[in-house]
Amino acid sequence: MIPMVDLKRQYHKLKNEIDQGIQNALENAQFILGPNVQAFEKETAANLKTEHSVSCASGTDALHLALLAAGIGPGDEVITTTFTFIATAEAICYIGATPVFVDIDPKTFNMDIDAVEAVITKKTKAIIPVHIFGQPVDMPRIMQLAEKHGLQVVEDCAQSYGADIKGKMTGTFGIAGCHSFFPSKNLGCYGDGGMITTNDSSIADRLRILRNHGSFERYHHNIIGYNSRLDELQAIILRVKLKHIEEFNRERRRAAHYYSKQLAGLVTPPQEDGIGTHVYHQYVTLTDKRDAIMKKLTENEIACAIYYPIPLHKQPVFAEQFKSLSLPISERVAAQCMALPIHPELTNQQIDQIVTVIKSAI
Fold first, then answer.
1. Residue 76 shares a structural domain with residue 190
2. For position 155, which CATH number holds?
3. Which of 103, 128, 262, 348 could form a disulfide with 355 if both were Cys (CB 3.0 to 4.6 A apart)?
């Protein structure tokens, strides 16, 4: 069997260090905002070249808290892509703001920046660019557009840890960058976890209060906050994996480039736009023979998936609100997209096996 991601194999590679770190934490019995959480925040800030790294309980919470800290709220409009995971839009709705969906670039699957400018109104307060599947959005253009219209930028980096544009990391362009440490991510823990990066000290201070019941000092609560703290044991796992993140991303790129060479003429492979460094959280192809290929892959015990089958403006929760909205590129991509296994441990021999099965299906 070839899984989408091989966490078991990766764990055995790092087992000794992870197990020792967890054992030490159990002996020390410091579990909430403990020394490993604090160390992880410092290490990620250094790794991503940002002033502040504030951990939280999930990538969804990262988006939610970042928008709150940025002062976005009821009556505001936030522009984002329709081709992303629901969490991006959920966070906008949590704060009482209104999501405004735009279509995508057919090659990168990232938001169409020209489409963003076309939907800016007096109510628009922020843009959430999503670095989908690990491909950086053209952030210099986004920031130029945001400055022109006086908008905040909150980056959704749930799939792009370690991606950069000319050495500047995703998550460091806007007022905040929101990261997810879901197990399958490029940098993933063994449960849920998240983080917000920012170069704004006032935003960082507000985030630290928001994630901890509105409290900076124990039993003194300045505002209504949330219980959104990264678990100490997850921080241990993430600290171990952080040491290998450049290697992990390099191996993902190696696997992706080999895939693209072998799949030429069979399906449309993902395309890099040359603006930033793609870190391939997912390897998403396009094909009009998706059902036949996925059936054959499944029969051969090869994992595959559809990211994403339904654009957000077509999801049941939003369908009535956006019933007159047509975003044809996202709708076409959703009907043809197919994700293949991608992870640092994936070998060229396994890719050859996958490609052979795809050829037989076609």
1. yes
2. 3.40.640.10
3. 262
Closest CA to 53 of 157, 163, 184, 182: 157
pLDDT over 90 at 316, yes or no: yes
Full residue range of the structural domain in which residue 92 is found: 7-242
Q: What is the pLDDT of residue 218?
A: 87
Helices (H), the chain: 7-28, 35-48, 59-69, 87-94, 113-118, 139-149, 201-210, 232-242, 245-263, 290-299, 316-319, 328-336, 348-361
3-state secondary structure of 254: helix
Question: What letter would DSSP give residue 227?
Answer: B
Q: What are φ and ψ of residue 341, in 5° steps?
A: -55, 135
pTM of the model: 0.97
Asked if residue 263 belongs to a domain, the reply is: yes
201 C-beta neighbours (distance < 10 Å), count: 10
Give yes or no: residues 319 and 183 share one domain.
Answer: no
Residue 357's contacts (CB-CB under 8 Å, 6 or more residues apart) are 296, 297, 300, 302
Q: How many domains does the chain have?
A: 2
Q: Which residues pair with 217 in a beta bridge?
A: 220
Provide the terminal-to-terminal Cα distance of the chain, rounded to the nearest Å.
21
- pLDDT confidence of 39, banded at 50, 70, 90? very high
Q: How far are the Cα atoms of 88, 121, 150, 235 from residue 79, in angstroms, in the given order?
A: 10, 10, 13, 32
CATH code: domain of residue 264:
3.90.1150.10
